[in-house]
Amino acid sequence: MAHHQFPVQVRWTGGRDSVGEVTGDYIQHKISIPSELGGVGVGTNPDELLVSAAASCMTISLAATLERAHLSPIAINMQSYGEAQFEQQRFKMVKIVHKPEIIVDQLSKKEQIKKRLSQLIKIADQNCMISNSVRDNVAVMTEPTIKIQPSKSSSDSKTSI
Prior knowledge:
Elements: E1 8-11, E2 20-24, E3 28-31, H1 46-68, E4 75-87, E5 90-104, H2 107-127, H3 129-134, E6 139-142, E7 145-148
Parallel strand pairs: 5-6, 5-7
Antiparallel strand pairs: 1-2, 2-3, 4-5
Helix pairs in contact: 1-2
């Protein structure tokens, strides 16, 4: 079985109203407690990072799933949010909702995706490492839409006589 490590470092000095920094191979951001939770709200925060990880993982997984089904879209625009609740004297992420907008260039491709979308979303979710990591602890829901954006054709370009 393959094992992969994803190292990050966090530097924090002071109490709850301080600002720290998280760094990794490709990430470098200031972090603090969000202002909505009584913190200073500078940079990002663990809650936003969790939802970002889930959203980016699901987007990449959905793109790969569509590609394997020979239904590659022009683009996927993902809007996601996490919902946290205060339960039993602590905060907990209870739900992450993904709202991917799948953009295609043909009505026929839209119809093909639409027919298989439920199964494709399920496959993408099953292949997403973050979904697999939070499953049974955080509800993950996906509410997709499909939009047609015609590609630029040669008739759109200027021709000279």
